[in-house]
Amino acid sequence: MGGLGEKPVFDIRKDSIYYFQKDSAYPYYLSGDTLRVKFPERDTSNTFGTINVIEDTLYITDFTDNDFIIRGYRYRQ
């Protein structure tokens, strides 16, 4: 997914999310429309919020602040 200028931020894979900036992949879990990512430095999974995909855009709405929405765009070279 694009996000920082012309470089991708992360790649959603079959069983993990790869973060280019950290050069690391983290397992993720979908529970209904809720996205959880397990970071090794934490004891529990980090819950990002509800997800929706509309056309080429991934929307993640934060549980604690419904006005905070992360938008992920498909990265094209």
Computed structural class: mainly beta
Strand content: over 45%
| Distance, first to last CA | 11 Å
The total count of helices amounts to 0
Total number of β-strand segments? 9
Largest sheet: 7 strands, antiparallel
Q: What general form does the structure show?
A: globular
Q: Strand order across the biggest sheet?
A: 3-4-5-6-7-8-9
Order of helices and strands: EEEEEEEEE
- Radius of gyration of CA atoms, rounded to a whole number: 12 Å
Question: Which bin fits the share of residues in helices?
Answer: under 10%
Low-confidence stretches: none
Summarize the structure in words:
The chain is mainly beta and 77 residues long. The mean pLDDT is 77. It is built from no helices and nine strands. It has strands spanning 2-4, 7-8, 10-12, 16-19, 24-31, 34-37, 46-54, 57-62, 69-73.
Brief summary of the model shown:
The chain has 77 residues and is an all-beta fold. The protein has strands at 2-4, 7-8, 10-12, 16-19, 24-31, 34-37, 46-54, 57-62, 69-73. It is globular.
